[in-house]
Write a structure and sequence with these properties.
Two copies of one chain form a homodimer. With about 140 residues, the first copy, chain A, is mostly helical. Chain A is built from five helices and two strands. In chain A, about 45% of the residues lie in helices and about 5% in strands.
Amino acid sequence: MISTKGRYALRVMIDLAEHEGETYVPLKDVAERQGISKKYLEIIVKELVSGGLLAGVRGKGGGYRLCRRPEEYNVGEILELTEGSMAAVACLDHNADACPRASICRTLPMWTEYDQLIHDFFHSKKLSEICHTNSAV
Amino acid sequence: MISTKGRYALRVMIDLAEHEGETYVPLKDVAERQGISKKYLEIIVKELVSGGLLAGVRGKGGGYRLCRRPEEYNVGEILELTEGSMAAVACLDHNADACPRASICRTLPMWTEYDQLIHDFFHSKKLSEICHTNSAV
DNA sequence: TTGCTAACCTATCGTTTCAATTGGTTTCGT
DNA sequence: ACGAAACCAATTGAAACGATAGGTTAGCAA
């Protein structure tokens, strides 16, 4: 299940995409529009900045801004960054120790197939597709 | 992420499918073959029985058995029963209170689409497809 | 210089979920 | 009566979740 972290991150990205051109958008505004605690968003947005998805500027007149155009983001990278891992199953997590049953496991092929399905779904979904902006595809 | 409960449930079902005909299979045997604590499996298997996916018989010579043929089960029903909910997102959980933002939410359509994708994937996957048994299909 | 704004940083907290474990009771065949 | 097996209830330790609290630092303007 996708947690609030990933979902909120996505909503922040969309909000910023829909308010492009207004130079830097203070988090306060985003939080109010989205009805999410600003303090909680700070934690999430920090990760988006350090992950290179957003740019932040301090001080008066500061705030956050996308550092690419909306069509150059995909949902997958946003979720992977904030959720840590999108693995469907513990066995497929990147920092899981190798399962000794892997070679004989009846279920592993299905999980792998499922993982691929999810990956493809989110990585083919562009940010521009899910927000109401006029700067087209 | 699919928890151990769902994954173990699936492995029990597969194990039983692969040992069909041996009348009732004691959980002890399944646990040993799968390398999972028998006590923990008891909890999981109880749900499979009360959900009508397995039949259990007590006493000496007892154990568990599938109550349909492997090709008549799909993975989706097994996971739904044991995982409780397969909803990808809290907003789509069956016992979540309606989100006030639902009508204006930019992300909801995507989550709904994702939910459908997952549902279809698991519900079209038959138990017989993922186990090594000779009783065909 | 002072004040304000806004990002940045660190710690903590209450609750829930996860993954079991413990210690039984009941039912059945022999 | 005995043993094997399902059935049942409660607890536990650890981790994750979803925040909240209380700061510090950087930049702009009067």
